[in-house]
Amino acid sequence: MVKxxxxxxxxxxxxxxxxxxYALRDDYKSDGNYIEDYANIFDDNLEKEKKNNFIxxxxxxxxxxxxxxxxxxxxxxxxxxxxxxxxxRVGLDKDGILLLIDMYNSEIYITASGNYxxxxxxxxxxxxxxDVIAPLIRTDSNSVMDKYYSIMNRYFxxxxxxxxxxxxxxxxxxxxxxxxxxxxVVGFFGSQPVFKSSAISNPGKKVFSLMDSSNMNNLLIKxxxxxxxxxxxxxxxxxxxxxxxxxxPTSTTHKSSRGGTYTGxxxxx
Length: 269
What we know:
Elements: H1 2-23, E1 35-37, H2 44-61, E2 65-70, H3 78-90, E3 96-102, E4 107-113, H4 115-120, H5 123-139, H6 143-158, E5 165-168, H7 174-190, H8 192-200, H9 216-230, E6 250-255, E7 261-268
């Protein structure tokens, strides 16, 4: 009964999650700026000066690039929050890039939407950007604006990498989770009568009593052990010696709760 109640609670939580995600959307609308420092980690005068850099990116490449910091508590993942912030600024599946610095959770997340921006922000570039920006947040926060701008300007100048692959992130759908959970519960409770009957039948009989006086006992045991030994072979894997390993560049995408397509990556700092 406890397992049934737990399963019901899990299903309800998973089902209502999307509606909770929608609740944050009116709270994070754009103020019209490309740098929105609600965590107050940047110098005010320097912030006003650096905003012009991001305006120049829009004018030259027609892709808005945003920098958003937050320090208030919230119950959403960095991915969900970053995707929603970008949606509020560019709309659904329109070109745009946003870097979220979440001081409350000590997380940084880069997200991009729109056909061109998703191609520009391939997986390697996202990780490179995070490698550079994340350490600066605690040590030299004002330099984040310049570094972010210079990296994005370089990406736009270099353009989309040749042979880029757009790859959809593998995800488990809600229906699959429910089906698997129900099947597990049914299997568990369905096996109870078998367990009980096995436990109470012939209570005085030993499990291996049929084999006690048989010469086949040792043979069977040895055969089982021999087979287990011969099937445990170690398979060696080849590991790429370089970071790219000759593979084609990839931009891995995911769906937001609104149904939009984004590519993103994040980490703790």
